[in-house]
Design a protein that fits this description.
This is 3-oxoacyl-[acyl-carrier-protein] synthase 2. The protein is α/β, with parallel strands linked by helices. It has 13 helices and 15 strands. It has 2 domains: 236 residues, Thiolase/Chalcone synthase (Peroxisomal Thiolase, Chain A, domain 1, 3-Layer(aba) Sandwich); 153 residues, Thiolase/Chalcone synthase (Peroxisomal Thiolase, Chain A, domain 1, 3-Layer(aba) Sandwich), CATH 3.40.47.10.
Length: 402
Amino acid sequence: MLSPLGIGVDANWEGVCQGKSGIGHITRFCADDFPVKIAGEVKNFDPADYIEPKEIKKMDTFIHYAIACCRFALKDAGFEITDANAERVGVLVGVGLGGLPAIERIHEVYQNKGVRKITPFFIPMLIPNMASGQISILFGAKGPNTCVVTACASGTHAIGDAYKMIRDGVTDTMIAGGTESVVTPLAIGGFAAAKALSTRNDDPQAASRPFDMDRDGFVMGEGCGLMILEEMEQAKKRGARIYAEVAGYALNSDAYHITAPSQDGEGAAKCIGLALDDAKMNPDEIDYINAHGTSTGADITETMAIKSIFKDHARKLQISSTKSMTGHLLGAAGGVEAIFSVLAMHHGILPPTINYTTPDPACDLDYVPNEARPAKVRAALSNSFGFGGTNGVVIFKQMTDS
């Protein structure tokens, strides 16, 4: 993964365990006239470290991030795509807004220099499925090559849909997760116009404060998180390091509003319940939830959803929102947060929810406030909910031999 906390899994895991914030003032453009001047930007990323120089200009940043993370993930998994397995290796990378930076940049070129100066690579730069497409081409994966575009649930849906492809025998291995990079004038301006973003410009690192009484909106971030999902017997046979088992997945819709969740959390609750059913697990088998937790009013509905499904066990659950440290990575959020969920289980450490200083009576569960916590995690659940009323939940558990 890569995020505002750093490049690579180790840097990110160290950052969340230390309760660091990756939020700062916007440097990608001059935000002086914007009501929102803060974001979670990836720092010190050079695409030339991962991509041939002549190819870099054919891609927008969200694709650069995906290729870098694919290299990280394949190396971590010790997995090589060969002529023998290529047709059973697929790619499914979720994206929220795709190549918005390219759209803004090339539109300016058109306005200033005319239509003949539009690069022939413009369309491949911007279409969301080119994150998956470029990975497939560069690494030779000839199995399913597709994309999920479901706003903030994209990364979770990508992992869940990839899991189902393997379970159904469509393929044996999937490169799956989410990527996003849209810290641009239009994206910041658009979310600000929708009153969705924090305006805590004077204290960026304290701006993302999920479940806290004084939250005032989410902070936009960027990044990428990809996993190698593999059919279990194949992974065991090749001696792979296995972090966890994908146990269950569900998706559904609130069918309520274009940007707001259903007021009682009904859609999210049903999605959690469906994921538990898919995993054939009881609610009390879940020890940790990586919450969607955006630092908006929706934190209340997510809390309500958790209570409605987990009943008395909700008080025993340990819940955190790593968005308090990364910001909201939009289409990449589900991929990055799935990795954090698995690492929490693997290392026995729960990332905190930082900036939790004033409890909200409507959010009254254990959000692992401010400091990481040692804990044994048998199973972890990751929530993602997106504009358009779309919901996604994926469950991971300690691997068993059954």
